[in-house]
Amino acid sequence: MNLYHSLPEEIQSLIDRHKNQSRTDFEDRIGKPGYIPNQPDVIIDVIAALAHGKNVLLKGPTGAGKTKLAETLSYLFHQPLFSVNCSVDLDAESFLGFKTLDYQEGKQVIDFVPGPLVQAMKYGHFLYIDEINMAKPETLPLINGVLDYRRTITNPLTNEVIQAKEGFNVIAAINEGYIGTTRLNEALKNRFIVFELSYIQGEQLKTLIQNTTSLNDVKQINAFVQLSADLVEAARQGKVAEEAASIRALLDACDLSSIIPPKRAILRSIIDKLEEDREKEVVRNLAETLF
């Protein structure tokens, strides 16, 4: 069933009122649907927040579908999605753009190439900031004015004051507790509405495997759904790292299992990513009981 038509009528109306119907030069940046919510109210609540101009922060373990949800929201609102992938090396240019030498009418000139933040603001599109808590704390205050009621920024590279066009919104994602991450300061966190995402399970996961992977063996699909449940429980008990329960990794294993034996697919997609031998052994034992 089409995701849009599965939403309540009042949410459909909310989307329609805020939908960017115009054709743009960034049609290739409009995301594709595919997010399946573990909690049915999550996608409705995120849509409501975006439709009211709120910034959205998606929290959850790796592979829980944060990026896929952002792409699905881009699809529903028909909004191009500009992205920033944060790291400890993130600087102002990663958000704003950079200066470069160009030639116009035979003369050398300094040109400015706009970055994802500038383009999203000027065209009124979505900005997706992935792993925002990987950025250096001194970099993020740059966007405080973008995230509050002002919706403005003074570009230090050009001195241009940029006012966000209507429709501009920020969706950020965060993985808490991972190496290299830091705590978001309260001033920044207070500029977002926070949504906690968890791994999908059961029939929803079965549907996702059937719709997005090459695996069509029903018995194996059911076994992978059970493996996922076992891995989530093992991660909850501290027996394995959260990355072992990643849905993204599980889907990779399902794709490989359409060609190679499932236990080898699990080895390549899940086990070999883990650092500790005891964690590898836990996953290996779970796979042995199911396949």
How are the secondary structure elements laid out?
Elements: H1 3-6, H2 9-18, H3 40-51, E1 55-59, H4 66-77, E2 81-85, H5 92-96, E3 97-104, E4 107-114, H6 116-123, E5 126-130, H7 144-147, E6 152-154, E7 161-163, E8 169-174, H8 186-189, E9 192-196, H9 202-212, H10 218-236, H11 247-257, H12 262-269, H13 277-290
Parallel strand pairs: 1-8, 1-9, 2-5, 5-8
Antiparallel strand pairs: 3-4, 6-7
Helix pairs in contact: 2-3, 9-10, 10-13, 11-12
Q: Any descriptors?
A:
two-stranded antiparallel sheet; five-stranded parallel β-sheet; 13 helices; alpha/beta; Rossmann fold; 42% helix; 291 residues
Major sheet size, sense and barrel closure: 5 strands, parallel
Based on CA atoms alone, the radius of gyration comes out at 21 Å
Task: State the helicity in percent bands.
Answer: 40-55%
Number of strands: 9
**Order of helical and strand elements:** HHHEHEHEEHEHEEEHEHHHHH
Poorly predicted tracts of residues = none
Portion in strands: 15-25%
Instruction: Output mean pLDDT.
Output: 87
CATH topology of the largest domain: Rossmann fold
Quickly count the helices: 13
Terminal CA distance reads 32 Å
- Backbone structural class: alpha/beta
| Strand order of the biggest β-sheet | 2-5-8-1-9
Write out the CATH superfamily name of the largest domain.
Answer: P-loop containing nucleotide triphosphate hydrolases
- The 3D shape can be described as globular
Task: Give the total of domains.
Answer: 2
Specify the CATH class of the largest domain. Answer: Alpha Beta
Q: What is the CATH architecture annotation of the largest domain?
A: 3-Layer(aba) Sandwich
